[in-house]
Records
---
Amino acid sequence: MKKSLRCFLSRLLALTLLGGPLLLASGCAKEEADSAGLHAAILVDAAPGLQIGETFQVMLPVSKTAVDVVTAPELVPMSRILDLKMAEAGDPELRMLCFVTYVDGQALKTLNRLSLRGQGRRLLLSINDTIVGVHPIEGPIQSGEIFFISEVPGETREARIALMEKYRQGAAEAILASRKTVERR
């Protein structure tokens, strides 16, 4: 199947499965996508004045922040993400919805190197070419567990949680399929 058609079908699947007006980022040339077109990756915002790889500007739906995203090369491809969960974090009165990713050792080294010199930048969690979470880099990343503040829109907290769960389930299935493909090699 041609790459552009696969990209179109992947986006159509994301819109169909997840409903509503979603902000879709570019960058469909993903090596690790499974046959259903599901995909997850950790990307990084482009440093001001730095032109590396392919970039695309997106407006984050919850924080209303414009971000230049480096879409290729991916900072952490799906094959390096071990798991994806949902969590709540922060003060009991100001709970934030988050995605929690777990990455392998190689990805952790990459993230650690970037975080040492990239303070003030953001890591972005992409699922099906949609930015769904943001992690501000405030210091060195030394753990393979990374919290991404949810950028999934919703009229109510319950609607956001339901949409986040759809993203999480789709990405978790794709991550598992990717891990099986890598293990067979």
---
Amino acid sequence: MNLRQILWALSMLGLIILIVYNIRNNSNFFITSIHFIINIIIAIVFAYYLVQNKNDERKRKEIAEKVLRDIQLLSLTKLVDSPVDKLEFMKKILMHKRSLNNKIKALEGIGDALGINEHIKYIKDKFEEYEALIDEMNKENYQGSSDKIMFLIDEKCELAIVELYKRKANKRNYRK
């Protein structure tokens, strides 16, 4: 057993001894008013609601940040690393497009609640440009043409992540 566990066990033992002592020596220990019980219930419900609400908001932001980071990673992925045949290259491109498209669609679902709809719309527009570019190109001119679009998507993802947490800071400062 480490010191932390020992301290925790001693604290619990002390608390139990205190409770038993109060029950034995105080005849009015269990007597309380309905007003006091209602106040405690309201305080517990209110505290739970506030904590759960913040947890949900924090979780949504974490999910959005993870998806945005995944989009960044995909946008910076070089698909032309080594010589491959055209069929293999097209398979990589299609998988890349599908993955990006799925992540953008996932973001659209929570973007309104988080206030990053403008960023998501921009990312989606650039992704549509990327798709149009891919449809009319071949392997040789793929990388150079798509780099600029992917760089813009990466930058907008970073701005969206900053916006997620900037909104929270602005709300906090506004309340003061």
---
Amino acid sequence: MPILRATESRILTGRRQQWLGVTSDLKKIVDKHGANLRALELTFGGCPGTVVISSIHDSWEAVAARNEAITADKDFQALMANVPKLPGFPFAEPVEVRLSVDITDEVGGSAVPLENAQVFQLMSMRVHPGKRAKQVDFIRQMREARKGAGEPVGNVLQVAAGDASVLTVVRPYANLAEWAKDRAAGESNSAADVAKRAQADAAYPFADLLAIRVFRDITGQL
């Protein structure tokens, strides 16, 4: 059961290079403890300057153990002490630190590999009380329809520390051109049929769409 730790921030105007520098130093420390820090930057669909740094863990025990090891690391402590003294600090405004559980197995099929993707579309939704099962089943049917039509599918995350009613479908792409191609193609007839059946359900809607955001991987800039 993979667990994603994500810290979302908004880089302040004119502070991007400073933020990259500090995050690069942080990555060296985090990677040393086996967490493999990754950085994403918003391309479309939200506040300019939005960035997310994330790491994936195999278990809750790994989340706790790595967090304790990193905070106890003398290099980390020195970084946290020195960064506020740097010219131009602060470089970003924190938005949220959240933990999400990968529940892709609940919607059928295997999780899609994310390691080599360079672009990610994140579709977030807040599930209505008592309608989680229906929303998860709707996502499952849409995923099967898209896969059957040869369209890209994504993994499903559920926030576990934060707003637990939020689900996010993470769809990876090789590059921005592949994302644009998928968006331009629209939904297949089978996916459209799934949506029509869901809309005919007396309990519909099962969730409120919060946002569709597109991020690109900037880990290579660190």
